[in-house]
Amino acid sequence: MATRTAGGNAAFHNFHNDYAHIADPNERRRLALAEIDKAPFGWYHVRAVVVAGIGFFTDAYDIFAIGLVTSMLGVVYWQTAATKRGSIPTSADTAIKVATSGGTVIGQLGFGYLADVVGRKRMYGLELIIIIFATVAQALASSSRSISIVGIIIFWR
After folding, report:
1. How does DSSP assign 68-86, residue by residue?
2. Residue 133 belongs to what H/E stretch?
3. How does the entry describe its membrane topology (predicted)?
4. Residue in 21, 31, 17 with CA at minimum distance from that of residue 1
5. Are 72 and 92 in contact, with CB atoms under 8 Å apart?
6. Residue 125, SS3 per DSSP
7. How far apart are CA 28 and CA 18, in angstroms?
8. SS3 string of 94-120?
């Protein structure tokens, strides 16, 4: 007999508990998935696709847009450079792209651990808020006398 789990509400039914009395985990999983497959198309499916799609979109946008961003930064901030006018220096370009990859790995490990501790549903919402805030902060960033644009972008990445 499987352990009953908490969860389930009007939007998301907890199919695991419907078959908790079945000892074989593979049979229990098969029956739960069969119930999900039989469900008629409705808002449940739309909500699941939209929520998953927003998460994938924000992650993909954050990772793949940086190539365009570094090109635009070169045009805006390195117009007066002595060499390769309008092109970001290689070291700055590399630093921004490494910060993107490093932030992705640290985020996966950190948010994955926190999701196990706090709960996936709560952590997904918090992670989405952090991604939106950091993206807006990057978009509004500019250089100053105290820090370069590269440093600010690296910080928010």
Report:
1. HHHHHHHHHH-TT-SSSTT
2. helix 120-139
3. Multi-pass membrane protein
4. 21
5. no
6. helix
7. 9
8. HHHHHHHHHHHHHHHHHHHHHHHHHCH
